[in-house]
Design brief:
There is one protein chain. It contains 13 helices and no strands. It is mainly α and 281 residues long. It has a single domain, classed as MetI-like (MetI-like fold), CATH 1.10.3720.10. Helix 1 crosses helix 13, helix 7 packs antiparallel against helix 10 and helix 12 runs antiparallel to helix 13. The two termini are 38 Å apart. This is ABC transporter permease subunit. It is found in: Cell membrane. It is a multi-pass membrane protein.
């Protein structure tokens, strides 16, 4: 009887989750789908001129799309090497006080709220401006750096999990063939764990793309246009959604917020679906 009640409780929990997810996604699709079109992305600017940056875009979200892609690429470029390397080291390093401290640091960093990471970036700029770099300002590079610190724990944990899931027989066979520990990791273990590591990278990209608290304190603004460089401010889809939904002056601006939300939802869905497909292969 208890087992049946537990199964019924699990089934109801799954049903409630699916219902909530369907309501949220359905609401965004119903509100955002009618706005999809060239005017949503480019406004009154000709598409080719907008893509090439030959004309400013005042009523479209194309600069926010490019800004989001730029800041995500910057974040993953800064985080991928230290994140994966940390995961590898934590997997194969011998037990020590330093290893325990690093494991605790990764856990704490993973639990830091994103708004605190954004506040750290803002404080860093203020410190630089008052000391060695008076012209320092919030920028695309600062946002990428703070997002990188936010996703390094994800990369580290997924890499470590992927390596720990490999059978012990792989290491034993590699050792029997005379491989050194470095050769085992380079030619046997890392290639076998590649799918899990790549899935972690994709999930980290999705995590960086959807964050708003960090970028709104470190460089994202409204109507900045296409990113002019890593030291310039920029637009991003999460901030655009926040800005238009909280300060809209007309129904058109509110519709743009729904269109941007649907665009961001499609972007993250593609990333997470790709990660899921890689994990199943």
């Amino acid at each position: 009887m208890n087992a049946k009640l537990f199964q019924l409780w699990c089934l109801m929990s799954v049903a409630i989750l699916l219902l909530c997810l369907s309501l949220v996604i359905g609401f965004i699709v119903i509100k955002g789908a009618p706005t999809l079109g060239l005017s949503l992305y480019f406004g009154d600017t000709p598409m080719l001129e907008a893509i090439l940056g030959l004309a400013p875009i005042w009523d479209g979200i194309w600069p926010a799309c490019i800004g989001t892609i730029s800041v995500v690429l910057g974040a993953i470029s800064l985080a991928i090497v230290p994140g994966i390397a940390t995961g590898i080291w934590l997997t194969y390093a011998k037990a020590s006080i330093f290893k325990q401290a690093l494991e605790l640091s990764v856990v704490i960093l993973a639990g830091v709220p994103s708004i605190l990471m954004g506040l750290f970036g803002f404080t860093l700029i203020v410190l630089l401006r008052n000391t060695i770099a008076p012209s320092a300002n919030s920028s695309l590079l600062l946002s990428s750096l703070c997002l990188a610190m936010l996703i390094i724990p994800y990369l580290s944990v997924t890499t470590r999990t992927a390596l720990q899931a490999l059978p012990k027989s792989l290491s034993i066979c590699a050792s029997a063939l005379g491989m050194t520990p470095w050769q085992q990791q380079r030619y046997v273990l890392l290639p076998q764990a590649k799918k899990g590591i790549v899935s972690g990278v994709m999930l980290s990209i999705g995590r960086a793309a959807e964050d708003t608290a960090v970028i709104m304190l470190t460089g994202a603004v409204a109507n900045a246009g296409l990113p002019g460089g890593i030291f310039e401010r920029y637009e991003a889809l999460p901030f655009t959604i926040f800005y238009f939904s909280s300060q809209y002056q007309s129904q058109t601006e509110l519709n743009m917020a729904f269109g941007a939300a649907l665009s961001l939802l499609c972007f993250t869905t593609i990333i997470f679906s790709s990660a899921s497909a890689m994990a199943r292969r």
